[in-house]
Design brief:
binds magnesium ion; alpha/beta; six-stranded mixed β-sheet; 11 helices; four-stranded antiparallel β-sheet; binds adenosine-5'-diphosphate
């Protein structure tokens, strides 16, 4: 087990930032930690990195307890904080050399992480002159210096332009091939692009913990149809793959189907076969994004560039 959290709670004054959160992450998993702003993501990550102390509950990283063994925890994790604080005046190689000396990492590791994060040609540049995407690479390189088993990345792509976003996601996926990663985000699309599993947090409480595979299997198709006359539910039950039928007023019906195949033609044929007229027909898919909106009772913060 790479990360294990049990009954974790933390308040700031009257504000409950985390309220009894429990989950565990196996070695090698890439897990998205998804929630709207203020949900408690950074607070949980700061407890894992030993920066904050929890009020109740326990947390372990790489088998070490964050309170009893903070040194061992820090050795087995790499952390990219939100807003990635960097020394803009330093040159990339100089900054990594500074980090290597602070963490007592052999200097040979610098070349290795420069290569791993695609920074080879930028090593001689001043950090302040780099694009935001390249600054994130520098943050990732620093987090990887001591070759930790676990990476904790707090909103690693927030504020990147679309091309940088794609590049950084690709890099995180590559790194995730042989590390455990917990990555926070407020964008479901990001989880879909990078992660195997998602933990959804809202107002300090964990509201979902599922693999992407399981969520995709649960995706539903809903068709709203208006006929020119009332239809018996038993007749509608004859539609293939139909799961749920709701009359939402007048002759309007909401039909859920358990198939990804577009069922509009089947509904059309059904109307024809029963001498009904279709006045309106529309299809909506319950995407992972709508699931997130439902679970958090909040519209996800739209990413301006997506
Ligand atoms: P997220 O990272 O999901 O946006 P945070 O963990 O930063 O959420 O914050 C969770 C809640 O805790 C918010 O209501 C926030 O205002 C509060 N909070 C976080 N850190 C502090 C702090 N150092 N002092 C006071 N309140 C805090
Ligand atoms: Mg945060």
């Amino acid at each position: 087990m790479s990360i294990r959290v049990a009954g974790l709670s933390k308040s700031f004054g009257a504000q409950k930032a985390l309220d009894g959160v429990s989950f565990s992450i196996e070695k090698g998993e890439v897990v998205g930690f998804l929630g709207p702003n203020g949900a408690g993501k950074s607070t949980l990550m700061k407890i894992l990195t030993t920066y904050y102390q929890a009020d109740a509950g326990t947390a372990e990283v790489g088998g070490y307890d964050v309170e009893k063994d903070p040194g061992a925890v820090q050795r087995c994790l790499g952390y990219l904080p939100e807003h990635n604080p960097l020394y803009l005046d330093l040159y990339v190689r100089e900054y990594l050399a500074f980090c290597a000396s602070v963490y007592k990492v052999p200097r040979e590791r610098i070349a290795a992480v420069l290569e791993q994060t695609g920074l080879g040609t930028e090593a001689g540049k001043q950090i302040g002159k780099l694009s935001k995407g390249y600054r994130q690479r520098v943050g990732l390189a620093a987090a990887l210096l001591h070759d930790p088993e676990v990476l904790i990345l707090d909103e690693p792509t927030t504020g990147l332009d679309p091309n940088q976003l794609i590049e950084i996601r690709k890099l995180i996926r590559e790194i995730g091939r042989n590390k455990t990663i917990l990555l926070s985000t407020h964008i479901m699309k990001e989880v879909e692009a990078v992660c195997d599993r998602v933990l959804i947090i809202n107002k300090g409480k964990l509201v979902a913990d599922a693999t992407l595979e399981a969520l995709r299997k649960d995706e539903k198709q809903v068709i709203e149809v208006e006929f020119d006359y009332r239809v018996e539910e038993t007749l509608l039950r004859g539609l293939p793959h139909v799961e749920d039928i709701r009359n939402t007023g007048g002759f309007v019906y909401e039909l859920s189907f358990s198939t990804p195949r577009d069922m509009r033609p089947a509904v059309f044929d059904f109307a024809h076969d029963h001498s009904l007229k279709t006045l309106q027909l529309s299809r909506k898919t319950q995407t992972l994004e709508t699931l997130f909106t439902e679970l958090t009772g909040d519209r996800p913060v739209a990413h301006p560039k997506e």
